[in-house]
Every structure is written in C-alpha cells, then in structure tokens.
Design goal:
The protein is globular and about 45 Å long. It contains four helices and eight strands, in the order E-E-E-E-H-E-H-E-E-E-H-H. The chain is an alpha+beta fold. It has one domain: Nucleoside Triphosphate Pyrophosphohydrolase (Alpha-Beta Complex). A hairpin with a 5-residue loop joins strand 1 and strand 2.
C-alpha cells in the first residue's frame, strides 16, 4: 500500500475554545484543513498556505506550542516540528486506490472575528463539545484526539 506524506492544520482561536473545520466532500467527514505536501514545500509552509486556501483566513503558527517556530523563521534551515504525526487510512475514490497518509499536524492560530471564506467546503467553527458530539462516521478519531488535547 502506498504511503503519502500530508500535513494537517488544527486551526484554533487564541482562547483555545474553538476550531475551524471544513467538510470534506469526497470523504463525507468534517475535518481539519489537510492535504498532500507539494514537492517544493516544507510541511509547515503547506499548513500555512492551505489554511488560507481552504478557510480564506489569516493565521500564524502557535509559537507557544511550536516553541522554536519564531526562532526558526530567522534561520531557513530549521523546520518547525509538528505536534503529532499520525497514520490515516484513506479509502479508494474514483481512480485513486486506498492508501495511507503520514499526517504531520501543526497548530495554527486564527482570529475568531474573521469570516470563514469558503461556502463550498462548509467551513464551520466548532467548540470542543460540538466536535466530540460528532458521530465516528462524521469525523476522524485523530480530529477528536487533537481537539481534546488542544481545546479547553
């Protein structure tokens, strides 16, 4: 089975009470922005770009969690560590065979006052309880685990 490298961005507000999730049409699940890393990108660069593309909001990397992110930004040879690396099984769809992802998770801060910009992915801000109330068929277990750990 093929393994693809991907990055996930758990987008949270500064008070750590909400996360911004999208609805993934192919997988029919509510989840964090994620995707395959492009050959010209490092994982943290992808996370920041994808949040802008999928949610239409401005952001910054959480330097309290990614402790060296600010210092590393001054040295292009250092890449901020993800907070977690998880395996995900991605089901077959159309001409793409079932495969695994090696998902690198980053925590991204975004201001609550920004409108989530994309209707087609049904972006939505959710509290910890709202995410935990989703059925297992409505989200991934990894989303619930990250929300449990990073939201209050």
């Amino acid at each position: 089975m093929n393994i693809d490298f991907a990055t996930c961005a758990l987008v949270i507000n500064a008070s750590r009470t909400k996360t911004a999730l999208i609805f993934h049409n192919k997988l029919q699940k509510r989840m964090q922005p994620w995707g395959h890393i492009e050959p010209w990108e490092f994982p943290h660069e992808w996370a920041l770009r994808e949040v802008k593309e999928e949610l239409g909001i401005d952001w910054k990397m959480d330097i309290e969690i990614h402790k060296y992110a600010e210092a590393m930004s001054k040295n292009p040879w250092f890449v901020p560590n993800p907070v977690a690396i998880c395996r995900s099984l991605i089901p077959a769809h159309k001409n793409i065979a079932e495969h695994e992802h090696c998902d690198m998770w980053y925590i991204i801060l975004a201001d609550d006052s920004q409108d989530l910009g994309w209707e087609e992915n049904q972006s939505k801000r959710m509290t910890k309880q709202e995410v935990m109330d989703l059925a297992d068929t409505e989200t991934f277990q990894s989303v619930k685990q990250m929300v449990t750990h990073y939201l209050i």
